[in-house]
Amino acid sequence: MTLTTKAPSAGPVRRGGGVRGVRPAAAPDRTPRPGSLYILPAALFFAVFAVGPVIGVGVLSFMEWNGLGDPRFAGTANWERFLGSGAIWDATGRTLLLTGACWVVQTPISLAIGVWSAGRQRNRAVLSAVYFLPLLLSSAAIALGWKAILDPNFGAAKALGPLIGYSDGDLLGDTQGALLCIVMVVTWQFVPFHALLYQAAARNIPASIYDAALIDGAGRATAFRYITLPQLRNTIITSSTLMIVGSLTYFETILLLTDGGPGGATHVLPFLMYTEGFRSYEMGFAATIATALVVLGTSLSLLIVRFSGFAKMRSTLEGI
Amino acid sequence: MTRRPNWVAGGLSCVWLAVVLLPLWLMVSWSVQLRQDYLDQGPFDFPRAFTAKNLGDVLSSGFGDYLVNTAIVTVFSVVLTLALALPAAYAIVRSRAWLATASFRVFLLGLAIPAQATIIPVYWLITRLELYDTLTAIVLPTVAFGLPLAVLVLAGSLRDVSRDLYEAMTLDGAGPFLVFVKLVLPLCRASVTTVGIYTGLNAWNGFLFPLILTQSDELRVMTLGLWNFQSEFGVNTPALMTGVLLSALPVLVLYILARRWLVAGLAGVGGK
Amino acid sequence: MTTHFSRRHFLGLAGGTTGALMLGATGCGGSSGPGGSGSLTVWSLQDPVQNPIQKAALKRFSDKAGAQTKLETFLNTAYTQKLRVAMGSPNTPDVLFNWGGGSIRQYVDNGLLQDLTPELEKNPEFKAKFLPSVLEAGRIDGKYYGIPLRGMQPVILFYNKKLFEKHDAQPPTTWAETLKLVDTFKKAGVTPFAVAGAESWTQLMWLEYLCDRIGGPDVFGAIAEGDKSGWADPAMVRAIDAIADLAGRGGFGTNFSSVQYQTGASPLLAKGKAAMHLMGSWEYTNQLDQEPEFTKDGLGWTTFPAFEGGAGDPKAIVGNPTNYFSVSKRSENAGKALGFLKQEMGSDTYVDALIKGGDVPAVADIEARLKDSPNPEFAGFVYDMVRDAPSFQLSWDQAIENKYAQPMLTNLQKVFLGKLDGKGYAAAMKAA
């Protein structure tokens, strides 16, 4: 997990607190530089409330804790249970499936909408103002709204279900249907944000490149394939990373929309972590699931980064 | 781009328009009906009669207080994030201290860590700090897990500041603090917007941290309030829809008044 | 278990924590938190009807005993977790609301609750005030830890009278009749039973009753005591198979897994789209609130049908016998707490207030007074049902150890979906 990055400023790394108070001189390399003091608060804060808990998750995964007493050392019991549990493997598979499905569905849609709405035409501007409306609602609001819409008796599912093969509107109550609903709701919720990223990036592609291509007789599809896509490469990486790490926030959607049901059909790792920790009070085991999540999230992100080229990674991540 | 109208894209864009608007329309249409009408009519029927009863019900059940709590959490999260991230970004770009370099690497890694996975140790930590069931308990982890993105966005924009500007200020006899206040802060304005909006929306929409770290009714934030409405107004879908829509109202106002600013701010997350 | 030292050590540490967070939570400045100041602190669920009654009771007690009292209320969803944090500290509430059974078992195991048995034995006239089946349901390992504080909530079979009249049908008294009714209503295009499959606690009521009818209360009783082999008991397997059979016949309709309790199952019954609905007695208040007209002339209720050849008594019931007040062992006000419970929980004033609020208190010999209830007919039915019941089993999700509740519900959903049969359910629960 070594993510080597170049130090932001070249030159020898000086220990200590920089050069505060040194009289400025004309030579450029003598410019006063901020010392550790500037980063110390953020670093300390992050260490206590983010790095600490991440380490804590790992430590707790070797403990037993029911929330009532002190955590007690439990050896590898949690991990044995984790590796031996069919439910966990199912949930892991489902988590990856859901992450993958959401990525596959969202990326083309947001890419298309982003590029399309980057055009300066008046109608596009008006429409994209509408497209971004779901951005205004929180996950909780969206999940509850959709839950009502997906009600098979009084909501819209009765009418919409038959269109996709659920004649009685039993979408949320069906094993596959429930997963489909989550992909649908997540797409509805997050496409606007990713489209926004693509829109901004597409607007930064110099028009001269397209003009040159037009002169060469390239069609619209060709231009998209050979100009737009390569130019958006970094944004695709950024958006994908955000999507994949963000896929863990689907937890709220699942909790509110299906509560893991029907019959565990939407049990994903974050949801199991929550129920083990705060419904079954098996905090140690919940921490084991959480550790797996941290490892999964980090390695997936690193995988994208590596997959997409090491040098690119730096500029992308730094550009975020 | 091209002058020829793009029919395929136009058609697809209308499909997506329907996808976006249909659920919103249903929510709006249900929220203005009485429960009986909602149950007796079809889901797509135009409201038989309009009512403000749902609005009254939702408002009188403390929704205003929930919004205030959320607003407090949001403001403090944004302020604290900026207060920590601005100097940090400055140090990352300009400092030669090892701490700056090391922190930058940790922040990069931090981007990939799902905040929700740490909820159990965070819960432990917050109870041990005697902050359990306070709004502070929500702000602290929200800020911590928002820091990596904030620092990187700010550092990204600071990197574009030409060295000449720093040198010019130095010639005027400014120390690092003066450079920070007079040069860095003004130049960061665009990315401060981005960080502010992104952090703000995150805090505004936060669910898991408030769910686990607070309990009392007086401290309930908007998202939890909505969740609670589900049991309180469980029988009454129109009232629940009213709550759902009302929760978005402040952001909607912001969107209408300052759409460009909001959109540009969010888009800033993707970098240039 | 853990060593004595670490437990004490932890409690000492956590004490300050919880005290402070409770100050933060309730905004009650001044006093040094519950327990310490001599003020009697009572924790309860937030409830617009119950809270004023409880406050009045506390006031009567403080007027008489000259003690300071305080009622703190929490929302249902938050209460369990909140209580859990507080119970891990020395600053526990003096008197705490609970559901009995598994909801307090871990506190009992950790020695955090007062055994009220000696007190009840010493005051037989106080003990006699409560219905025995309800008092029994609150026992853990043979000891009493809770005093009933409010109404009883047995699970009842509700039905739509108009639909039954229209199709010339009678509410079922046996399982065979139940299955026949399923065909009748299915033919008529009506869902026989509304069930909120999206909320599996509603499905659990079916298992609770069927298992009780087929094998009697001891089948689950053993499981609640920690014997997992009970899931493979023939009665349990048969009960599960009966549910799977009923679901397979379309007894619950086709899309029940998407149905919510309040937004789905209740309106389905009221709107005549479903004929019957198995639900807790609170459903009456719920319907009265939402569908007053239907409730007055269309809502019927009856007991759960008998199962042919079953070992269980058809008069036995399941549900929430009541809610209980328990006393914290670390309370410095234990004497006052007991005084409060003894003075108020069985008192005429308190019981009358409950009845007026629509509750059916778990107090003996109040038939005559139930006429003051907002719905005397229904209240009388509930009261007789509980009084005559040989056993009143606590809802399984409350009775069972926390960690098994979730798998029990998830696997039951699978039974309703037709993915598990009796044997499969037993195997899944054994692995949980």
TrEMBL record, chain A:
Locate the region Disordered.
1-28
Membrane-spanning segments: 37-63, 96-118, 125-146, 177-198, 235-257, 283-305
The protein's predominant localisation is membrane
User: Which CDD domains does the UniProt entry name for this protein?
Assistant: TM_PBP2 (cd06261)
SUPFAM superfamilies according to UniProt: MetI-like
Annotated membrane topology is: Multi-pass membrane protein
Known InterPro entries for this protein? ABC_transporter_permease, MetI-like, MetI-like_sf
Q: Where in the cell is it found?
A: Cell membrane
Keywords, A to Z, come to: Cell membrane, Membrane, Transmembrane, Transmembrane helix, Transport
Q: Which residues form the ABC transmembrane type-1 domain?
A: 92-306
Superkingdom as given in the UniProt entry? Bacteria
Q: Which family does it belong to?
A: Belongs to the binding-protein-dependent transport system permease family.
User: Per its record, how is this protein called by name?
Assistant: Carbohydrate ABC transporter permease
From TrEMBL, chain B:
Cited InterPro entries: MetI-like (IPR000515), MetI-like_sf (IPR035906)
- Enumerate the Gene3D superfamilies for this protein: MetI-like
- UniProt domain ABC transmembrane type-1: residue ranges: 67-258
Highest taxon in the source lineage:
Bacteria
Provide the transmembrane region boundaries. Answer: 7-28, 66-92, 104-126, 138-158, 179-201, 239-258
> Where is this gene product found?
Cell membrane
Q: What Pfam families is this protein classified in? A: BPD_transp_1 (PF00528)
Q: Does the keyword Amino-acid biosynthesis apply?
A: no
Q: Does the keyword Glycosyltransferase apply?
A: no
Alphabetically sorted, this entry's keywords are:
Cell membrane, Membrane, Transmembrane, Transmembrane helix, Transport
PROSITE patterns, per the entry: ABC_TM1 (PS50928)
Q: How does it sit in the membrane?
A: Multi-pass membrane protein
The record's similarity note reads: Belongs to the binding-protein-dependent transport system permease family.
User: What name does the UniProt record give this protein?
Assistant: Carbohydrate ABC transporter permease
The organism that produces this protein has a lineage beginning with: Bacteria, Bacillati, Actinomycetota, Actinomycetes, Kitasatosporales
From TrEMBL, chain C:
Cite the InterPro entries for this sequence: Bact_solute-bd_prot1 (IPR050490), SBP (IPR006059), TAT_signal (IPR006311)
Q: Which Pfam families match?
A: SBP_bac_1
Source organism, top-level taxon: Bacteria
What name appears for this protein in its UniProt entry?
ABC transporter substrate-binding protein
